[in-house]
Every structure is written in C-alpha cells, then in structure tokens.
Amino acid sequence: MPKFLSFGKYNSSKRNTIVHFWDRFESLDKFGKLSLITMLLIIISTPFITGELLSLIQQAASNKTATINIDPPSGTFSVGQEFTVDLVIDGGGEAFNAAKADVTVSSNLTVKSLTITPISSGGCNFVFINANKTPKTSDPSFAGAILNGSSLHCNLYTLTLQTTATGNDTIMLKSGSVKSYADHNEILLSMQDGSYSIAMPVTPTPTSTPTPVPTNTPTPIPTSSPTPIPTTSPTPILTATPTPIPTVTPTTIPLEPPTINAMPSETYQNSILLSGSRLPTVITVFVNNSSANVIYSSASTWQFLASLTLGLNTFTIHGQDTTGNISTSTSTNISLHRLADINGDSVIDLIDLSIFGSDWDNTGTLNSPLSDMNNDGIIDLTDFSIIAKEYGN
After folding, report:
1. What is the per-residue pLDDT for 1?
2. Measuring CA to CA, which residue among 280, 274, 259, 346 is closest to residue 306?
3. What's the start-to-end Cα distance of the chain, in Å?
4. Closest C-alpha among 337, 325, 230 to residue 282
5. Got the DSSP string for 212-223?
6. Domain ranges for the chain
7. Given this structure, which CATH class describes domain 266-336?
8. Integer Cα distance of 133 and 131 in angstroms
C-alpha cells in the first residue's frame, strides 16, 4: 500500500513560529510596536530610496554635456617652431550662451598671437565682460557671452605659439563654466588640456658675421640760463566783520514720524518688505494714507509688504498717536526694473552691459546692485548668461 508523505509537522512548526512572533509583538508596549514597524518599513523602503537617489544622481550628471577643449590636445614640435591650437566649446547637443575658463600657457611656449574666430568661420560671437576677462596674448583666459543668441558648438580663438626650450609643455584649463541658454544652469562636463613634446632641432652651425663697432658722437653740453627771481607783493590784512547774533524763535516739536529701515532703491522683485521703528505712543502707521495690512511685530516696530509696479514707486509713511495727533511724514522711493535693465531705461542695451562689466569680479561697492541678476550676492557667469539672453529686448 503506497505511503503518503505528510508535511503536517512542518506546517505546524511554521504556524507555531508565526503565532510565537505575534504573541511577542502583542506583548510589546506602544513604543516598542511603533519602533518595530518603523524598522520594518525602513528595511523594505531602503532599496527603493537608494534606487531613486542613484537615478537622480545619474540624471543630474547626464544634464552636464558641455566641454571646453584645446585642439589639437597633443603634438611633437622642435625648439623655435611655431604651431597653432584652437580653443573649442561644445555644448554636447545643448545650446549655451556663456562660458569662461582660466587658460595658462607654460613658460616654454610663447604666445605670438591670439585671433578671435569670426562667426562666419564657426566662431562663438562672444562679447567679453571687461578687460580682465577679454582673451589676449598675455593672458588667454576669458569670460564671454552671446548677446540674445546661443550656440551648440564654436571655436573661440586660435593661439599661435612658438616653442623656446625642450621638454613637455602644456596649456592648462581651470575654473571652467558653461551656462545653458534655456535656464542658465551649469552644463560643463569636462575640459581637455593641451600637452606637447618639444625636442631640439638639428640645425647647421651658422657662420658668424663681424659686428661693426659704432663710433661715439660727442653730445653738446647745454648752457644754463639764469632764472629770474620773482618779487613778492605784500599781502593785505583783512579786517574782521562782526557776525550778528540771530534771535532764537521758539518752535513747537511735532510728533516724530515712523522711521524706514534701509532698503534697495532699485530691484527686480515685484514686492518688497518695508519696515521701520515707531514711538511707543504711535499706535497706527499709515503707508500712502492707508493703515491696511500694516503689521506691528513689537511696540516700537512696524512692517508692510509693498507690491511694486514697473518704474518708480513712492511710499509715504506717517503715524498717529493715542490722542489722535498725526506725525509729519517721511517717504522712500523704490524703482522696479525689468530683468537685466540695469539703468532703468526700458531697453537692455550696451549701457547695461557696460555697467555690468564694471561690476564683474568687483569685491567692493558695486556700480549697481542690479548687476546681480539672480540676487545670489555674486556677479558671475550666471548673471552674464541672463543679461546676454535679455540683450536687445
């Protein structure tokens, strides 16, 4: 008679384990149960969170597609030989409108010339921010932007170099940046330096040519002319005129108006928080003759969120005390500008670009706080990308 295998004992053991686990769980207090459930949720969700984080990192990395390269990146040359290299900016398929890099040429390479590539030959059509960031033979570093336009790939300039000694010489790129035309975000992925081997050339021994000895020509000794001695005139003595003593007229002291804290006189923001101090007896503050929406955070302060319209906005402030007396008034002016319209003439043009250029890398007082387009406290390539995109509007 056939025998049947029975798993009843195994099932009973498994069931007992689950029952035992449940009994232990039921015996825990509320905090213990919550801790156990939290731990299980963390264990279950960790692989998902890790996967999403890696996906976000990969996506962020994939958004950086641009390169700045020295072309050709390598070569072998003889001492005294001239050769050329190009500085090439490539967006990797994404449009850009601003870029910068510090370019250092090693001491055994002499920069004979630097030629900006014209737009007709695939040039970048960059406008450079100021003299310190305009590429030149003494310093090929640059910071530039395309005004009201963009590029996918361009040659910025061509360097003509001459070797002066044997060895391995380089053109180094540092502190690079490329800004997206669409949103002004950083898209630089990598930079390619240039590295070149310099060897001693085999040249015939030159014959020496005698150098003629120049003859000295005597220099005539100039004769000196006597300098006339000026005569002095006596200085007249001034007589003092007595100053009349003004009479003091008694005046009444009016109720002091609320004060206004310092704030920018020009901004790109559509609203600004006005604030200041007031006397404890001043119970109501009026902004442009209205006390609506004025907030009193303490017995001696006030604040008001003011909406701005394009152009000049004037806010007049006065107060009223507990007995109904009205103070004198004080006022402040705030101008709302279009983005990148630094001088406020409603046109983003060369004047705005000139003001912005004077504030580039300025560590002291700015010519205009509006040079900081994105209000991050730094005048950098992001701001240049913004003004370049708005240029001409």
Report:
1. 45
2. 274
3. 98
4. 325
5. PPPPPPPPPPPP
6. 8-62, 66-199, 266-336, 350-390
7. mainly beta
8. 5
Q: Nearest to residue 150, comparing CAs of 180, 117, 129? A: 180
- Going by the DSSP 8-state scheme, the letter that residue 60 receives in this structure is H
pLDDT score of 385: 96
Q: Which among 372, 373, 371 is positioned nearest to 354, based on CA atoms?
A: 371
261 and 276 Cβ atoms separated by less than 8 Å: yes
Helix (H, G, I), strand (E, B) or coil at 158: strand
- Distances from the Cα of 317 to the Cα of 149, 185, 251, angstroms: 45, 41, 23
Give the three-state DSSP class for 96: strand
Give the tokens for residue 158.
């061509």
> Are residues 188 and 179 in contact, defined by beta-carbon separation less than 8 angstroms?
no
* Count of other CB atoms within 10 angstroms of residue 274: 19
Closest CA to 287 of 268, 266, 302: 302
pLDDT of 53? 64
In the CATH scheme, what is the code of domain 66-199? 2.60.40.680
Per-residue model confidence (pLDDT) at position 154: 97
Reported for 275-279, long-range contacts at CB under 8 A and 24+ positions apart, including other chains, are 275/301, 275/302, 275/303, 275/304, 276/301, 276/302, 276/303, 276/317, 277/301, 277/302, 278/302, 278/319, 279/255, 279/319, 279/321
Q: Are 287 and 294 in contact (CB under 8 A)?
A: yes
Strand partners for 217: none
| Angle CA 188–142–103, to nearest 5 | 80
Tell me whether domains 66-199 and 266-336 share a fold. yes
The Cα 199–Cα 169 span in angstroms is 11
Residue that is written with structure tokens 């005139």 in the block = 233
H-assigned helices in the chain = 8-27, 30-62, 350-359, 381-390
Identify residue 94 by its one-letter amino acid code. Answer: E
Q: Which ranges of the chain have pLDDT less than 50?
A: 1-10, 58, 60-62, 250-252
Q: In sequence order, what E strands does the chain have?
A: 66-71, 74-78, 82-90, 96-105, 109-116, 127-128, 142-145, 153-163, 167-180, 188-192, 194-199, 266-267, 271-277, 282-287, 301-307, 311-321, 330-336
